[in-house]
Every structure is written in C-alpha cells, then in structure tokens.
Write a sequence for this structure.
C-alpha cells in the first residue's frame, strides 16, 4: 500500500472514530418528582405550586404538569383556558392526544396523559372543574371519580357522584335532545367525529359535528351542556355564543372568563 492509500485509510478511520465519539445520545426525560401532583404533596406537604416533572404508573416517560398545591393536597392541572396566551383549542385528534400549550399557562395536557393519570393501579382520581365569569363570580363542580378509557375506545368519559356550586353540566338534561348527558361519550375533534349528531337540529340549522360547530375538541354528546375547550371570548363580547367556553348549569348564556380542570388522586 502506497503512502497516499495509507493516508486515505487513516483519514477514513479517523472520521469514523470522530463520528462514534460525537454521536448524539437520545434525550432522557428528567427524573420525575412523583407519579402525580397528589403524590408529590403527600411526600412533602410544603411543596409549592408550580411546574413539576411527573410519571404516572404505566407511563413510558415523565412529562411536565402544573401542580396546584394547597393545605388540602396537590392537584394535577390537566386544562387551563383563560385567553391569556391566545391559545387556539380548535385542534386535530393527534394534538389533543399529545397535548398543547404551556403547563404554566393556557394548556391541554393531552388525552393520553389524562388516561394514564386516571387509570393508575390502586388510585382513584377526583375531578374539580373550576370556573370564573367576567363578573369574577367563581364556581366549582366536583366529581368523586373521573376516568377516561384508552384511545382504542375513544377516551370515553366516566364520572362519579357530583357535588359543588357549578351544577352537573356533564350530565345535562336528557329530556332535551341538545342537552343529553355527556357521561359515556367518546372524545371528538374536527377530524375525529364521535358525537351523537346525525344530524343535530338547532332551530332551522342541521349539523353533523359538534367539534366543527363549536371549534373545539371535547366529550360531546349532541352536543351537551359542557364544553370548556371552546373559543375564548373577551369581556366586551362574551354573551350568547355557540362556540364558547360554556358550563350551562351555571351561566347558561355566558362564555367563561376562565376554566380549569384538576385531578387529585386518592
């Protein structure tokens, strides 16, 4: 082998060694502080509210969530909608599955994460629905259990007994077609229609998709009395919108100033 060939050979080996030394290692998610925010609080009741890394039982990797910590325990915020980040909730199925937004601000944590949080072995999840109107009135609807199925079953909604000041909008009024109970409903988005409209009739208007008419993803029936992922409307224009953040057992004509969904595991 002549000198030119040797130089070429050694150059090739050097490049391969260099590449092997500088291979990008896959990112490892940070160590979780706990399985969920309730677990973090139980380990340290002095834990402050904020964004933590958590990893529910069965989750393939940890993820970020906002933990609301108070003297009664820790809750994992799975949704916050208040217009402050101008976040668009009119999204496709994959985005609702994965989650979007900023955990410290407006966000939807993701259906798959909600499934993992609400299906942990030997744990029960309680749901708090926190609402605020533009008059700064506040209400809270609580469900003693909350669970959704896996994606194959459409992330179907299951609820326990209701208590609180906001009314049981999820269960609606089954004697009125538009206000059928949403318990047992699968999740719907603009590209994945799982509602009961075939069609739904509103006055002289027929529609086949609650997600398309309400600009959101949600557990629609036909279409129901609750949708907290609807379009946010400002203080000067929040009355009588179909595509709005509504909880009709509390403020039936108003779009909410703020909604927040929180899970506490017991």
């Amino acid at each position: 082998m002549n000198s030119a060939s040797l130089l070429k050979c050694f150059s090739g080996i050097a490049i391969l060694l260099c590449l092997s030394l500088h291979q990008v290692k896959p990112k490892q998610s940070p160590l979780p502080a706990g399985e969920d925010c309730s677990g973090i609080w139980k380990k340290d009741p002095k834990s402050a509210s904020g964004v933590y890394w958590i990893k529910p039982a069965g989750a393939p990797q940890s993820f970020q969530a906002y933990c609301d910590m108070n003297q009664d325990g820790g809750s994992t915020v799975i949704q916050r909608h208040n217009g402050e980040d101008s976040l668009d909730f009119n999204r496709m199925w994959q985005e609702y599955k994965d989650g979007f937004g900023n955990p410290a601000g407006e966000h939807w944590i993701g259906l798959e994460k909600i499934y993992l949080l609400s299906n942990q072995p030997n744990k029960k999840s309680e749901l708090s629905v926190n609402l605020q109107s533009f008059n700064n009135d506040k209400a809270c609807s609580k469900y003693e259990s909350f669970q959704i199925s896996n994606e194959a079953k459409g992330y179907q909604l299951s609820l326990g007994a209701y208590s609180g000041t906001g009314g049981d909008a999820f269960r609606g009024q089954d004697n009125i077609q538009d206000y059928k109970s949403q318990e047992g409903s699968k999740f719907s988005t603009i590209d994945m229609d799982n509602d009961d409209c075939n069609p739904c009739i509103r006055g002289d208007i027929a529609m086949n998709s609650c997600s398309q008419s309400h600009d959101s993803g949600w557990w629609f029936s036909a279409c129901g009395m609750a949708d907290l992922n609807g379009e946010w409307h400002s203080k000067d224009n929040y009355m009588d919108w179909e595509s709005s953040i509504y909880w009709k057992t509390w403020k039936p004509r108003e779009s909410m100033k703020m909604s927040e969904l929180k899970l506490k595991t017991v």
